[in-house]
Amino acid sequence: MLSDIFNSFLVWVIKKRIRQIELFMEHPDEVQINLLASNISKSVKTEYGRRYGFDNIENYADFARDVPIVTYEEIEPEIERIRNGEQNILWPSEIRWFAKSSGTTNAKSKYIPLSSDALEDCHFKAGKDMLALYFNNKNESKIFTGRSLRLGGSTQISSINNQSYFGDLSAILIENFPVWVELRSTPSREISLMPEWESKMEAIANSTMKEDVTSLAGVPSWMLVLMNHILKKTGASNIQEIWPNLELYLHGGVSFEPFRRQFDTIMPDKNNFHYMEIYNASEGFFGIQDQLNSKEMLLMLDYGIFYEFIPLDKMQAPYDYIIPLAEVETGVVYVVIISTNGGLWRYNIGDTITFTSTRPYRFQIAGRTKHHINVFGEELMVGNADRALEMASEESDCLVKEYSAAPVFMEGNESGAHEWIVEFSRPPKNLDVFTEALDRHLKTLNSDYEAKRHKNMALKKPILHQAHEGVFYQWLKNKNKLGGQHKVPRLSNQRDVLNELLDIHRKMA
Asked: N or C end of the chain, less CB within 10 A?
């Protein structure tokens, strides 16, 4: 068949990339230093390059000494000027595209500049690499005989002026995809870029449930919403009845652990179906799971991004302890600092990771720097919470759909606590037993939490509310954040989000 020939040809083309990936795995430090030198050389005559003396930077030590670590707020004035048409400020090539990202704790929108270099050498290159690494694990794949269902692009492309445009990163990528990608994707570009999320979900379901879908790509929470909607419309018992040739789900954006058992329920044939995790953001594409049976991702080192790291416990200005990739150690939670081919220089993306290997550099996401609870010295990260919930769910034979938690502050001589709101797709028979299991597993996974829970000295037993169905969906809808990369913050040191969720919960009672 023509589709089989096409599949074989594309597999051959994409797998040629494997040798280049093996090269940066074998010589990671050299690749990173050469990349930094190239980015600096290209940007010597930019406004930012002149400001920080790029022409005098000869090595990493010079770079670390002369160029400051920044947050979005600190370079927002430069980005605003680029959005208004000025060029050669942060990066030498023309920048016309901006990925709009509201983040998850800040209502203020961020506009991340996307140069043509970043689109081609980072995001599009990563798209090919995801498939190359998959084919390297599964030679017999027939993924190109069918279509890839993409889920994203909740914001239409909008014009800032005659030269500049913004939208969700996924929408920008869809707008700029090469023809061959568009031919193998579903739904159509028109449906993918529909602005109203609920109408779009209906349109996606109607247009894809009769297609031969062989792969999925999107955020787990929203992919589940779509697939459950399709199951309801068709009356099928599982997704593989609808798409019998489905073999791959590429997921990212949030931790997959709380969703895995829900996916397993609607994807019962584990022999012919695989999950692959990716780590991408508006600022860049950083990691791909390169081993199908692993929970680690390979740090992608030749996408035009130079990496630096700060141990989370030393994340205080002035940043006295910041290291390049060559100096990282396994088991340490690091804040990620990037310098990119889109003009972000020593930019704190707000994410934390932990390396599981340094030869090659593989890692797991620990969470967001803003998404943890550390009011009482417990340093509870999202990764701990996700895993503890998964373990408690297995014990209680239930399925967690969404969750959020925040501190209960001390009053007088009383200890504090963590207050949780959890929405289940299959609730536990006994909520108290589930809460005790969650508390026990958090102690096992986090020694700081365990110490603070000792004899209830700093922390009492968690308070847990079983949310009514739709609480989290309604919160997102109220915030105009349905779909795409949007999600409810998992953990926070403040109670704003939790109080809003509890208020919706009470109104639904």
From this structure: C
